[in-house]
Amino acid sequence: MSELSKDQFKIIGYKEENINKIERPTISYWQDAWRRLKKNPIAMMSIVVLGLLVVLIIVGPYIQNYDYITMNVAKKNQGPTGANWFGTDNLGRDLFARTWVGARASILIAILATGIKLLFGVAYGAAMAHFGGWVDELLMRIIEVINSIPSLLLTILIMMVLGNSFPALLVALSITSWCNTARQVRGMIKQLRESEYIYAAEVLGAGPLRIIFKHYIPNMIGILILDASTAIPSFIFTEAGLSFLGIGLKSPDISLGVLISLGQQSMDFYPYQLLFPCLILCVIVMAFNLLGDGLRDALDPKLRR
User: Which class is 35-303 in CATH?
Assistant: First the structure.
């Protein structure tokens, strides 16, 4: 029986120069995360809904050319019609325009409060983890003292001192929210600072700020995005609750919480004045929460293939 040799076989479908070539393309972490996010229909639907909401928040108050401030007593408490899609309030103002202006204020407050939370939390947590020692102990004790104070009580005190204004509400929402972010960042950086490239950067003379912004933050960006996606709906709901209770913004300022507070006063006779702001609030919070769930799965390195 004769021996077989490779010259007796022919490879079909490949050129000889491409036999050892790896055809599978290499993709980055972010490309793979986007690929997995696109496969999540609920998360993609949330992105579409949030996009539509952003468009309506920007142009919604001007679609029907109604002034959301000017009162028209002759048209007060009218139900939804072709002229006023969400009806009018007890002073004759168009509720459609006022709802989108209120949603704009609520989302703006939530985004700014989230930015403050991330900015201060990352800086504080990075300082704790990078310097360590007595600095870490002192800063951690400050966090424990802040967390020992009931957040609602602290919020009420701040609003009483600073008044029911936009800046005061930002301070009240952000005063304790950064603590959890700082703790997360501290834990992650304590793991990262043992890496060889951090040691190499220190040997080459890189300062603390350069190491934090050049090496630490890029490696934590996925966790920070998840933190932001969950913080925004939480701040929206908190603002609405505070304004509803009369602790947050007050009329003539407009937010979803203010509109819900005004609507509940006349809900027995004109329920639509409460229904539409509540509906928009629920849609916004649900869309952000579902998107956050999708981002959590897409950014989880354990699920990467």
Answer: mainly alpha
